[in-house]
Structure to design on (448 residues):
């Protein structure tokens, strides 16, 4: 069986005990040492059967009440079910609350590559919550969350999709794009497929026109399309507010992601808007707005569990931000969520009197939020930053800013910047071939 490349082994300790020949005369003064020597000998002999050892946080999953372990394996295939050879599979152990956080392996990253059959395998990992990510050349990244706290053996397959460029989705008020449509004054969501014509996907269960639908976004796999709609497109939608929907191109199913009455009971407002989805279409982020414009927050929906979780959480007892949060985007892997916000209580290092909009990045793996719109020495910007876009791996965040102090030298207002979250450096990218800033304002950056 192939062993995973994630284990930590220490060499076997050799314990040698030399016993004195008791048939020879013995110094009376050393007789009292004999019982002690025998006890030490018995103790040391016991360490000779050790074998390979691992840190205490990994432990063995067998008897004796040791820490639980997991074995996880699976197959990685492409969109045609062909095994993908050499795909990189990563497992991130999610940090646990204290005191478990102090364990040696918490936060550890485990890696393996698929063999000639597209198979991967990890053995004897510590039980816990994991983030799994898979990537391969020519394929879109894939990721999922795994609850492996019960230990045991788990099989998790992954299917990768290529960036086809054969499908487009858009919003339109036109009434002549599909047969039988009428000019009702509302916008709809349309799906255009190469060689397959145009299909309207924002219909009611009876196939009739619905109230305004807009802001469509397609997953990288092109399977899922999320959008917002004021119409009641499924029977479960009973809240009379704008909701976020997800259309599955493979099954034709249309689901209201925000129909949960408990969600709208706790967050009664104008509705849910501006959705954005992860590369696999499983995590969708969106804005939630109450009756007050200032009370806009960012939430995420996990299609695997159906859970809706607030992202823009303040460092206060009630978790309520003191400013509006907007324009959420999520990395293709589904780990990082970027958004802009007026709130000053999302991170500990922000001046409460800061009157400017900032760019924030939330890490789903660690549950932490950091600010991305910062100067070379972590200075707060002297003006607003907005319209974030995040790279597939979540390390690069592009945004527009009116600030003039994000670089070492003063810069013009309205430029486009890219923040490297790993190196904590900011670069202006709206420049000409000679490196000079653009001569006019720039808007809406997009980064791959």
């Amino acid at each position: 069986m192939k062993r995973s490349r994630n284990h930590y082994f220490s060499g076997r300790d050799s314990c040698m005990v030399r016993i004195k020949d008791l048939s020879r005369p013995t110094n009376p003064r050393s007789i009292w040492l004999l019982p002690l020597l025998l006890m030490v000998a018995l103790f040391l002999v016991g360490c000779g059967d050790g074998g390979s050892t691992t840190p205490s946080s990994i432990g063995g999953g067998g008897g004796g009440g040791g820490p639980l372990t997991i074995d996880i394996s699976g197959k990685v295939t492409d969109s045609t079910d062909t095994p993908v050879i050499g795909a990189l599979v990563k497992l991130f152990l999610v940090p646990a609350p204290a005191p478990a956080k102090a364990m040696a392996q918490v936060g550890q990253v485990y890696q393996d590559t698929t063999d000639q059959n597209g198979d991967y395998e990890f053995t004897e990992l510590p039980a816990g919550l994991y983030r799994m990510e898979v990537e391969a050349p020519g394929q879109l990244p894939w990721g999922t969350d795994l609850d492996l706290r019960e230990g045991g053996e788990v099989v998790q397959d992954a299917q990768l999709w290529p960036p086809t460029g054969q499908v487009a989705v858009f919003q339109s008020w036109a009434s002549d794009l599909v047969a039988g449509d009428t000019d009702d004054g509302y916008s709809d969501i349309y799906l255009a497929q190469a060689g397959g014509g145009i299909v309207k996907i924002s219909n009611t269960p009876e196939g009739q026109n619905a109230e305004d639908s807009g802001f469509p976004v397609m997953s990288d796999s092109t399977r899922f399309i999320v959008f917002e709609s004021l119409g009641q497109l499924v029977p479960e939608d009973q809240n009379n507010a704008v909701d976020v929907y997800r259309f599955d191109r493979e099954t034709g199913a249309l689901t209201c992601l925000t129909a949960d009455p408990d969600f709208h009971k706790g967050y009664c407002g104008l509705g849910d808007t501006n959705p954005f989805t992860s590369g696999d279409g499983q995590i969708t982020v969106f804005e939630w707005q109450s009756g007050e414009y200032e009370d806009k927050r960012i939430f995420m929906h996990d299609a695997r569990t159906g859970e809706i979780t607030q992202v823009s959480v303040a460092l206060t007892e009630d978790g309520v931000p003191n400013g509006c949060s907007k324009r959420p985007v999520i990395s293709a892997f589904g780990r990082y969520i970027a958004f802009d916000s007026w709130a000053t209580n999302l991170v500990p290092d922000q001046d409460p009197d800061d009157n400017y909009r900032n760019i924030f990045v939330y890490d789903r793996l660690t549950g932490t939020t950091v600010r991305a719109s910062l100067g070379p020495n972590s200075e707060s910007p002297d003006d607003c930053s907005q319209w974030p876009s995040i790279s597939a791996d979540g390390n690069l965040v592009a945004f527009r800013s009116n600030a003039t102090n994000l670089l070492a030298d003063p810069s013009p207002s309205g430029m486009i910047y890219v923040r490297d979250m790993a190196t904590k450096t900011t670069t202006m990218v709206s420049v000409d071939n000679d490196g000079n800033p653009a001569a006019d304002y720039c808007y809406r950056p997009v980064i791959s």
In short: The first strand starts at residue 69 and ends at 77.
